[in-house]
Structures are given as C-alpha cells and as structure tokens.
Design goal:
Length: 180
C-alpha cells in the first residue's frame, strides 16, 4: 500500500493529488502516513476519531504471536505508535477524539503511554460538558490551521446503537449528528 500511495502522490496534475482511502481498518493509516510524509518531506498531523487510542505498543495487544515480534508488531491498534516511532506524525498537533475505552483494563497505562506520544486526548463524555462547539474548539486550538492533516475515522467513535457494524462495540459513543 505504501508503494501504491507513493506512486499516486508523485503524479503531477493541476491540483496536487490527495489520498482518500475508504474502508479497511486503521491499519491502512500506516502506509498512508509513510507515503504522505515522504511526498511532503515532513511529518503529518493526525486527527483520529475513535473509541480507542490506537497508539498501543504492539506488546500490549493480546496475541498468540507475541513471541514472533515481526508480524505481531503491526496490528490495527499499533499503527500510530509505529508511525510516531518512524517520525511520520507531528505529535505537537495530533488529536484523538471520541475516546472511551482502554486495552489494559481498569488502569490508565494506555493513556500514560499515549501521553508520551503527545496526542491530545478528547474523551467522548467531554461532549456533555463542552458541547460539539467545545470539541471543535479543542481540536482547532491544538491543530490550528495545519496544512497537512491525516483524518482517520473509526466507526466505533459512534455509539454502537447507531453503528452496530463495528468489531469493537463500546457504549457511550457520539451520535451521528454530534460527529458530523
């Protein structure tokens, strides 16, 4: 995918080409970020709407393959961790929004690890206290008018009552109106 994205971004046209990958899971973000960072010669800001952080160290993911680090290191919850370690992500302006779950259970080690990667974390419940406008304001205050933003949307940012097709249903998500 990285090779294909890189080739597409290298094409010349009246307007610079942009990537709009649709479908798949969030594992498509890593090859897209690799190609975008290469094409633009700098890290990319990420605006990530999801119930989950997706900046998990690969060793955190429960897997039968943990003793084989090469394949198990890449999964649908580790791509932003890998992207950060490869220098593909602008950490000072990247955001997670709609969060409401942790991989490691009841403690906050996921969030502590994510804080080291410097993403802004916006919980789904914050919409109750600051409203949609407050969420937008937090995102804009962090990202400003970044020229390059990779927008990543996981369906589970929405409440599973409204989007039941997710593989990781987490109650308490945003409504479709709030997300729009």
């Amino acid at each position: 995918m990285t090779t294909a994205y890189t080739e597409l971004l290298a094409r010349t046209a009246a307007n610079p080409p942009i990537l709009v990958p649709i479908g798949g899971d969030h594992s498509i973000a890593l090859p897209a970020l690799r190609a975008l960072s290469q094409a633009h010669g700098k890290p990319i800001s990420v605006l990530h709407f999801d119930a989950n952080l997706d900046t998990w160290h690969p060793g955190k993911m429960p897997s039968a393959w943990l003793s084989t680090p090469t394949q198990a290191d890449f999964n649908h919850g580790s791509m932003f961790w890998i992207a950060r370690n490869e220098g593909l992500v602008t950490n000072a302006s990247s955001v997670h929004a709609g969060l409401r779950t942790r991989l490691t259970g009841s403690d906050y080690t996921d969030y502590e690890a994510d804080e080291k990667q410097r993403f802004l974390q916006i919980e789904a419940d914050e919409i109750d206290s600051v409203g949609v406008a407050g969420i937008v304001e937090k995102i804009m205050a962090r990202m400003g008018r970044e020229e390059l933003v990779y927008l990543s949307v996981d369906i589970d940012v929405l409440d599973p009552g409204l989007a039941p097709g997710t593989g990781t249903p987490e109650v308490g998500g945003w409504t479709s109106r709030e997300f729009i």
